[in-house]
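Record pair follows.
FIRST:
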Amino acid sequence: MERAPNIAVYPPAVSVAAPLLAVALEWAVPLGLLPAAGSPAILLPGIAVLGGAGLLAWSGVRAFQAAETNVDPRRPALALVRGGPFRVSRNPMYLGMVLFQIGLALTFSLDWALPGALGVWAFLHFGVVLREEAYLTSRFGQAYRDYLAKTRRWL
């Protein structure tokens, strides 16, 4: 059994790098797809999505803390967390990171953050989630397989 998940990327780094890349691309190659920044048509939904993303991430961290397990995915899992937002999604913190990109796109009319959200999802899915699932299956056995059967990976 592995001592910790063998993740390929550190999730917070992906979540920070993606909007920085989106801003650089917006400056270099503006797409002009979204309405102007500040438009109520996208500003209010953007703020709502950002709020939902933050709530998901925060509640996921709180659930890990309540279970006294490591939040950092590079560290060993000490407990199988199934409460809080983990009742609905196996990856609420990562889902929050994807939604954060969409919220940024809408709030700041940042066109490149929309494909960036897809990129964040892909990096997290293939570089982290699938690897964590293999690790957690090895670590927690049938209890984790039961959780897999009852709870969706993303939504």
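SECOND:
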Amino acid sequence: MQLIESSLLNSVSDRAKESPRLRMNHNFHYSPEAPVQRLLNALEPGTVIPVHRHRHTDETYILLRGCIRAIFYDEEGTELESAVINPAQGCFGIQIPAWQWHSLEVISPGTVIFEVKEGPYVPLGPEDLL
């Protein structure tokens, strides 16, 4: 049994703080080929998440702790809309449609999201980055 509790979130967050990228995944799926990708994504302020899209899958983020700003863009990189996701203010997550250009800004230290998307894992190619 694997519980998603504070000790796990703290462990993943500690590894994110030590990472040069200031983020760290903890996968619940067993391989990159799994048909459903389920993971914790610990994010620290200052991490750079480029504007990107996923052509083959929607993404769902549920914020377990912390605060992020989710940003949607058009194909030229112009910001279309954004929303602050903060469970303390009653906003718990976001659904990102396939093909939607997006990024995140991490606002609070110790932020952890639960992320779900269809597999298999497909690395972003140049055509999926702005």
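COMMENT: The longest helix spans residues 6-18.
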